[in-house]
Specification:
57% helix; mainly alpha; 268 residues; ADP-ribosylglycohydrolase fold
Length: 268
């Protein structure tokens, strides 16, 4: 999950800037954590402490009300509502990464990802985005190749992952829907050479930079075996003690790569 958080923090200064290059400093004096980090840690807290997702999201919103939430989520959380609001936004995918570390099978991952999404994002596209992201992370951390990850996501979720960054970059624009940001974030990972490159790829598309870097970074962390120490240290330093404590607790309990499983043969 630290890969998602670091991606969010690195991407935070590129939100709405239309960055179309990979050549930028990873950290400046303006990097901050956003709602992507807050809600990712809220999910981790649920899994660590068997909390209800809706209660955790409300509590973390109250503690971090100015983290940059989408307007619909802000209204939902601020009003204390408990019923979902049919969102297909990428908020369900940005926060889902912890679910990929607590399960033993792909079926369990998909079920937990759905639970984490549907308390707000009960639209089928919101659920699909969360499940696809969690599945990609689980496949990556259990030793699947990029081609196996690509094929599984394309077959099971009907996402088209054959475009290249070079093809996407000139015309791609900010889009906070799962449909138009989750596949592109996955392509950023698939074309990467290491964790840092995955984050730079995602930001270079000029879209929803912090969230796309969060998603690509989450998959990259799992695939490449962690977040480089220098990046991890800088990202953790941006968090306050409360958030950092949950991240470290979750990492200590669930951080190891575990539970290799077998995909259906026609998906390999």
């Amino acid at each position: 999950m630290l890969g998602a958080i670091a991606g969010d923090i690195i991407g935070s200064v590129h939100e709405h800037t239309g960055t179309k290059t990979k050549d930028f400093p990873l950290f400046t004096g303006d990097n901050r954590f956003t709602d992507d980090t807050v809600l990712t840690i809220a999910v981790a807290d649920c899994l660590l402490n068997s909390r209800e997702y809706v209660d955790s999201f409300h509590a973390y919103f109250r503690n971090y009300p100015n983290a940059g939430y989408g307007s619909t989520f802000w209204l939902w959380a601020n009003s204390g509502r408990r019923n979902p609001y049919q969102s297909w936004g990428n908020g369900s995918a940005m926060r889902v990464s912890p679910t990929a570390y607590v399960a033993n099978t792909i079926e369990e991952v998909l079920a937990e990802a759905k639970r984490s999404a549907e308390v707000t994002h009960d639209h089928e596209e919101g659920i699909r985005g969360a499940q696809a992201t969690a599945a990609a992370i689980f496949l990556a951390r259990t030793g699947r190749t990029k081609e196996q990850i690509r094929r599984y996501i394309e077959v099971e979720f009907d996402y088209f992952l054959d475009e290249t960054l070079e093809e996407l970059r000139p015309t791609y624009q900010f889009d906070a829907s799962c449909q138009r940001s989750v596949p592109q974030s996955m392509i950023a990972f698939l074309e990467s050479t290491d964790y840092e490159d995955a984050v730079r790829n995602a930001i270079s598309l000029g879209g929803d930079a912090d969230t796309m870097a969060c998603i690509a970074g989450a998959i990259g962390e799992a695939f490449y075996g962690g977040v480089p120490a220098a990046i991890a240290e800088r990202a953790l330093a941006v968090l306050d003690d409360r958030l950092r404590s949950v991240v470290l607790q979750f990492s200590n309990r669930f951080g190891a790569v575990r539970n290799v499983f077998t995909l259906p043969q026609d998906n390999i």
